[in-house]
Amino acid sequence: MLMGIINITPDSFYDGGKINNIDTAITQINSFVEQEVDIIDLGGYSSRPGAKNISIKEEEKRIIPIIEKAIELYPKVVFSIDTFRHQIAKKAIELGVSIINDIYFNYGTKEMTELLTKNNVSYILMHMRGKPSTMQKKIYYKDFYHEILLFFEKQINMLNKKGIENIILDPGFGFGKTLNQNYQLINMIPKIKEFGYPVLCGISRKSMISKVLNTSPNKSLTGTIAANTICLMKGANIIRVHDTIEAKETIDIVKMTQSNL
After folding, report:
1. Which of 48, 90, 240, 248 is catalytic?
2. N or C: which end of the chain has fewer CB within 10 A?
3. Whether residue 162 lies in the annotated active site
């Protein structure tokens, strides 16, 4: 499946400031709809390392009017909200968003958990150490492989005990990992899939690509395509991307290859 990224933020690492009002957001959403993107992920809070903290009021101002208009225009499209704040998630669910993409759940609040138990929405559970402002200072693990798996085991069990079953697992590429650890995560996809839930990979134009290629995010599309291809071949169910046309072609080629084993 294909998840298209729309960041309504001035400071996202790749596309910050490109979409800054309802009109530009709806234009991009319309483009994704025409391309038959499976999920459109909307976010109003940048999670890049060192990103500026903003108030709940500011995040709501950025994202909620766009969600309201988008669902009015495209009621059958699957939208997700990229937020860690239960107040924003609640408003988005009330408007019709069906997936919560919450990078902070390992610091999850009681309110967010209750929100998930009371609503029939899917939840993206992502691994991250610390917060975006500190995560790259928390990259030392005693046993990276087993700590990642233990994180998912504990969080899945906790969610299941609350009756939450609609879970998507995100390894958290670039969130508190070294360059090598990010590539180890790719090789861990088959093991993570053993938990029995879909796996989402968000690698698009991240520094784990540009550092290997000694280039910038603006010039890392080819590397992104290569990494996403490997993730899909390893068993990833969803890829989260900025460049949906190229990603859709990637998925089609991988599907054809896998159907002719």
Report:
1. 240
2. C
3. no
